[in-house]
Amino acid sequence: MPISEIIAVGSELLTPLRSDTNSLYITRRLNDIGILVRRKWIVGDEAAVLEEALRLAMRSVNIILLTGGLGPTEDDITRKVASYVLERQLIYNEEIAQRLRDRFARLGRELPESNLRQALVPMGAILLDNPVGTAPGLWLEEGKKKIVLLPGPPREMQPMLETHIIPRLSAAFRGEPILRRIIKLAGIPESAADERIAPIYKGFPKVQTTILATPGQIEVHLTASKTVNPQAETELDQLQDKIEEALQDKVFSVEDKSLEEVVGIFLGMHQGNLAVAESCTGGLLAKRITDIPGSSQYFAGGVVAYSNQAKIDMLGVDPAVIRNHGAVSAAVAEQMAEGVRLRFGSTYGLGITGIAGPSGGSEDKPVGLVYIGWSDMVHCHSRRMQFSGDRDLIRQLAAQNALNMIRCNLV
Amino acid sequence: MPISEIIAVGSELLTPLRSDTNSLYITRRLNDIGILVRRKWIVGDEAAVLEEALRLAMRSVNIILLTGGLGPTEDDITRKVASYVLERQLIYNEEIAQRLRDRFARLGRELPESNLRQALVPMGAILLDNPVGTAPGLWLEEGKKKIVLLPGPPREMQPMLETHIIPRLSAAFRGEPILRRIIKLAGIPESAADERIAPIYKGFPKVQTTILATPGQIEVHLTASKTVNPQAETELDQLQDKIEEALQDKVFSVEDKSLEEVVGIFLGMHQGNLAVAESCTGGLLAKRITDIPGSSQYFAGGVVAYSNQAKIDMLGVDPAVIRNHGAVSAAVAEQMAEGVRLRFGSTYGLGITGIAGPSGGSEDKPVGLVYIGWSDMVHCHSRRMQFSGDRDLIRQLAAQNALNMIRCNLV
Fold it and tell me: Which CATH class is domain B259-410?
């Protein structure tokens, strides 16, 4: 299986402010054509360190991708170091220079002399057009080894990777793609999910199973390679089936859809629409629902009712119920769900009331207590949940569980 | 100035699924005590690669932090490789073994034999207590060099770094802290901000100026070190003053506050409260306002009015105005602001209507067109904005500009 290393260049990547995200994108696309990543380097604008990285990478693998350090300033050392390590002369390329002059002319500006540094390329390099920025990418070969220089800004790097690099690499190495399945779960904690499926995936040692947990959501990623295992596809199918069987309705997507997308699909299937009333989530649920293009088809709208008065005025919650049960109660969650449904004239209504903290909790009703109410033409019910975590996490968990409650009510 | 390298260990960090975030946290805390990071490595669970990294790091710097690979499985190679590179025997530590047994006993489980691997430590290592997980950290010294082994999960790593590592490193190296100032701007594009301040910060070559742009927000980070420049503090003061002077009311915080925090402070100062009516942002604005603990003091609530009917029913927008001007218009934005203020009985009202896309645009009213209306006891006005980008970006820009409009109206 072909193996690669990725070197990210730039002193800003060694501060607490910026991290290298390019390598994740690059890794996904390399994996797609069956190339693994063996090591990643993050180095600053220091020639000696980059030189060491490039020499060692070239000693150990045949595919090396460098991002960053192709700009027009003294600090941009990647071209220089590559030419030095590969023992190639840096040559002035008139084509690049002309393109730079044109680009600046279009912007009505004079090309600064220093920018011509970008026209210096190691001898034998193939220029890779950069439609977005000034720095062209470079493709270098040294025997079997391919060394690729790409600019650092993701919006320049990504299209160049797609257009120039992936096709060339897949022609040169033709690995089997790494196959991937993603099973998404809600309404089950990570430990419980793992307990149910560990005995299953342990029976498939050639499939790599990774469990990723985010608030209120578990993703089971299955990856396998035909190079290592000719049965990869069949094994993935079998493992996925067994996992789905074990987890039943905890599975909300096997097609990499988000929970809000799935909720939208279900609402569409029922030809219904939804309105939501939020207290502690403060708009987060409505925001997630409307993240989906076309959500206006099934989302009527929402009310963020933070105060008791707003719950009474905007949603018709009975003041006596708030007095007797408290604003954070099953009865209020249900009245919010019912109220928002009636006010918006929608098919379904959902209400969330809870204590996100950090203050506002009591012994009786601690921070993290959340009630979620559901209302449709015939039913109105609610669930009590107790979350732990900080304000942000409690709000995320409440919104995620509300979406899952919508899903479960529409199944 | 003391220099360090960070090595992150774990094959999952070489997939498209997970990135090393520990090093950002570590870098910030190292910088705080005057230690720079020179290089970062990300390696898998492959002993030869980790060995090479550790050898090279030890050759080039005196401070090396490794995260990950301290778990109980065969794959967890960090202890073994460290003992090998440092030429120290791995010794069975009864104290760790006992702690592991206690921990499992508390959970009512038997300690698996394999977990005792975690009790093997290189000779001479100082054990660092891990209150959250099973793997203790290790502190190793080799002459002047300090080699630190920390577990990978951030919630285990971070408290151990704080409790054990930062105090020890700052005692051993006593660098001057890297000083930092953060100036946050809204309502100005990155290029315009840079044009205004570049002539200023170029006059302070010993201060490192970094400009970070997120949607609708620019952060100017100034960093300097007393070790390099004894005048660092004074220069930072001067540069910050000059930048603030140049950017005037575009500056919304010099104390690392978010725009929603600043808006909350302003609302509190005016003893007023706010209600918001959102169309295209779909709850994002209310969500950001309520991210702030205590926002119930100044946030009355909101309405997400996605459909025309909701704008009419829930906000009292005049159907004739929608007919004549369209739902995305200055008149509707103003009526939404006015309507939500009256319905919630709040001091201030804000309305957003726009086209987030990807569909719904026309030649007249393209995707990205957004009107934001403002209403208080005496005024009602609106602003027209044209954003470009995808749905997510347009929504972010709309919410950010709405917050900035609130700020500007309350100055």
Answer: alpha beta
HEC-encoded secondary structure of B94-129: HHHHHHHHHHHHHCCCCCCHHHHHHHEEECCCEEEC
How big is the CA angle at A376 (ends A372 and A378), to the nearest 5 degrees? 120
Mutate to test the interface with B, among A17, A49, A288 (most CBs of B within 10 A): A17
**Residue in chain A nearest B19 by alpha carbon:** A24
What local confidence, expressed as pLDDT, does residue A240 receive? 97
Q: Are B359 and A314 inside 8 Å of each other by CB?
A: no
Contacts of B14 in chain A (CB under 8 A): 27, 36-40
Beta strands per DSSP E along B178-337: 178-186, 208-214, 217-225, 251-253, 274-278, 299-305
Angle (nearest 5°) at CA B232 between B228 and B233: 150
| Residues of chain B positioned with their CB less than 8 A from the CB of A38 | 14, 44, 46, 49
Break chain B into its structural domains and give their ranges.
3-173, 185-253, 259-410
CATH architecture type of domain B185-253: 2-Layer Sandwich (3.30)
Q: Which residues contact B293 (CB under 8 A, 6 or more apart)?
A: A357, A358, A359, A391
ipTM entry: 0.87
Cβ contact B306–A301 (<8 Å)? yes
Rounded to whole angstroms, the Cα distance separating B7 from A401 reads: 37
Closest residue in B to A299 (Cα) is B306
List of chain B residues with pLDDT < 70: none
Of A276, A283, A289, the CB nearest to B290: A283
Instruction: For A256-298, write each residue's pLDDT tens digit.
Output: 999 999 999 999 999 999 999 999 999 999 999 999 999 999 9
Mutation target to probe the B interface, by most B beta carbons within 10 A, among A28, A290, A307 is: A290
CATH code at A3-173: 3.40.980.10
